[in-house]
Amino acid sequence: MLRDRRTLFILFGMPVTQILIFGFALTNEVKNSRIAILDNSKDEATKTIIHQLEASRYFDIVEYLHSYAELEPTFQEGKIRLAVVFPEQFQASLLHTNAAPIQLIADATDPNVANTLTNYASAIIMDYQSAMKETQDFPYTITTELRMLYNPQLKGSYNFVPGVMAMVLMLVGAMMTSISIVREKELGTMEVILASPIVPINVIIAKMVPYLLLSMVNIASILLLSVFVLDVPINGSLSLLVFECFLFTLTALALGLLISSISDSQQVAMLVSLMGLFLPTIMFSGFMFPVENMPIPLQVLSNLVPAKWFYYIVKDVMIKGTGLETVWKETLILFGMLIFLLTISIKKFKVRLE
Hints:
alpha/beta, elongated
């Protein structure tokens, strides 16, 4: 055991790696969330509340809006998760009528995050209200009006469906194809294939087609169940959504074929695909744990996970109802990953068995 370095790494390296990743990445606490401010009053009271929001570790003010018309595009572009709206003459209403409202508008495509953010903001506002009561004799009351965009009923399926789509397509595409070429090597049929006048790209394409067809069947079944059973609407273009699913499936297949090309046995291929694809899809896609909560190195690492970009695309197209003008960057990233992985798979494909 001591002479086997791989065993030593598993015994000592994996526990350290897992405790660091799980300790930093897997947290339900929401912090450093991007928010926008629409201050129609611009008085001393609103400035104080905005300063308290910005001073907390839960919020990062990235946008100062000038009208309600800017709210919807800002949410659709994914720039913010929460908007705080102050009405006109906020301080004057508070001083003269002893009551004033503040509107909190949240992106409820992830209902858990939306609830958490509105609770954080409400608590900060209530702290300001309590501080005013200590210095004034009148019972000032600040009411928070909540508005949940895209998912007013706060259904968990709105966040669950895009994440499951990414996970299922990654598992079927990558894990199944990761053993396809290795199986041919173990059965001895790869020698016959290599003896024939077939170029590597044709072998790789032939291995991708069956799992691509199976994945498209899975896509159809997931969408049908989502709409007719879970009541999750497809608010955007169905053709764009299917195209993005097709692109992500090809990327997952290319990744699986790369693993298959460099593996010597089916067990190794399955282990690499499980540890290298399934766990990152769960942890770094944003499906279960917000990426912005993680340390900067893990946020950078999450950019290498194809499921992250696909998850954002499905949420934008399916839930928010946006078009290609919003998800073009994520689409280009997935396309670039597909070209890169296919190129590496072809180069790593061994035309001679050793």
